[in-house]
Amino acid sequence: MKNIMEVKNVKLRYGDFEALHGINLAFPEQKLTALIGPSGCGKSTLLRCLNRMNDDIADIKITGDILLAGEDIYRPHLDLVELRKSVGMVFQQPMPFPFSVFDNVAYGLKVAGIKDKELIQQRVEESLKQAAIWQETKDSLDRNALAFSGGQQQRICIARALAVRPAVVLLDEPTSALDPISSSEIEETLMTLKTKYTFIMVTHNLQQASRVSDQVAFLMNGNLIESGTTEEMFLAPKKEITSNYLNGRFG
Amino acid sequence: MNKHEQDLQEVVDQAIAEQKVPHVKFKKIDPESVDIARLTSPSKETRQEHWGKGLTSLAIAVIGILIVAIIGFVGVRGLATFVDDKVNIFHFLLTSNWNPSAGKDHVGAAAMIVTSFAVTLLAALVATPFAIAIALFMTEYKSGKQAQFLQSVMELLVGIPSVVYGFLGLTVIVTVIRTIFGGTGFGILAATLILFVMVLPTITSLTVDAFKAVPQDLRKSSAALGATRWQTIYHVVLRAARPRILTAIIFGMARAFGEALAVQMVIGNAVLMPYNLVSPSATLTSQLTSQMGNTVMGTLPNNALWSLALLLLIMSLAFNFLVRLIGKRGS
Questions:
Q1: Per-residue three-class SS string for chain B
Q2: The model's pTM
Q3: CA nearest A146 in B: which residue?
Q4: Whole-complex ipTM
């Protein structure tokens, strides 16, 4: 099993506050890794380090190595645009751009300077199919993406992230703003997609983590407490505190 | 205590006597003291509620009467030109021969209408790119001290009285235009430049609000797809803020259209159809300010001025309507 991303001794501080105290974790290719833990444990912060979305925050300092296919993504002169094409992201709130479905999905390609109309069209269709939203949108690609339901919008956002063919897709609680039916549809979509893409998902929903993930990492107070395959973690966690959290004793 | 209240008191007393749920601690609220008379009459809070409602309704009624009176007065006076003095309304709107003291065939406001719209549109056209640039700088590029500094500069610009702008325009802009283009220097160009400075803060601050209303997550989503900051601004932020920016421009135009004093000082006040940007002309507002002291109430020249006022009022309603329309389409 090849690791596509590796996090090595990553520490992150906002001013005087250290939010991550040296995380070591590897993300295997074409698997779904779930990051779980109580609120404020640093799981979303860690996730945002992986495509450098934390860069804009003032007074932030990140040390350690984050490797994507063996290359440090925090090396100087790294092309952020290239990095974010390789590491896509889907946010908690469905946030389609206020224009048509087609333009939404084609956005990543357009900003990357791709002008070939046929390629764009083909990619848009493929991505919408992969995100299982093609049936609902194929006749209304010109419709404003905001006119769709929340679950549909989130799948348009997934299609938008897939359109640039990222190696890794980061999911920041992708279903927590959705109703149960839309959530389970998104989960199904992820189950099919993880044979093609690598996913790293932050979730508060432990059942969801147990359903869709292959690997689980449990964080608390900025430390990685334990990580392992989903079966191991849920059935035989090595640490008492992991077991307590997974059994809902706190958090 | 009337009969009805006595009955009610009996029912309550009986209920207390018969209550069989020991863990509900009726003792705590002292059941003996349940006072039906007090419970069935309006409490202090209810009376306060009525008072509050009454006071606000009264204030609204007063303002309502005031607004109806203003619109009514301007309407009656403004329509007198057409009703009493039998001026043809199309003649008023479409011809540019303005000399009301010479009779009803000399009441043509077209020159002023054209000039008013010209200065308004040109001022908005010049101010909008600057306003958008400043607003982008304040919201997308710098958000700390520099943005606050710009904010205070804009507030300062709002605070300067229009007569000061007019004076500046008369002394500086008119002179410069005279030197460059010849002629008197008065005209649409001078008015446009003055109005540009005057509407800039209005359009800027509303555009800043427009950008601030764009969800941060949209910018993040765009960045996460590999877009640069400028691509994000150009493709996403401007797009998402568009209805509100249009609203900002219209508010700026309403201000430009209604500005009287500063414009009157630099426009030249000759009621002539402007044939270029530096020929003296007059706007609806400048004509009102300069002529209102020179007419006698009830005569045609006075009524004609009221008609100009009515036209201004209708335009302001139209601007408001446009803002509503765009707001509705935007959401």
A1: CCHHHHHHHHHHHHHHHHCCCCCCCHHHHCHHHCCHHHHHCCCHHHHHHHHHHHHHHHHHHHHHHHHHHHHHHHHHHHHHHHHCCCCCHHHHHHCCCECHHHCHHHECCHHHHHHHHHHHHHHHHHHHHHHHHHHHHHHHHCCCHHHHHHHHHHHHHHHCCHHHHHHHHHHHHHHHHHHHHCCCCCCHHHHHHHHHHHHHHHHHHHHHHHHHCCCHHHHHHHHHCCCCHHHHHHHHHHHHHHHHHHHHHHHHHHHHHHCCHHHHHHHECCCCCCCCCCCCECCHHHHHHHHHHHCCCCCHHHHHHHHHHHHHHHHHHHHHHHHHHHHHHHC
A2: 0.81
A3: B331
A4: 0.86
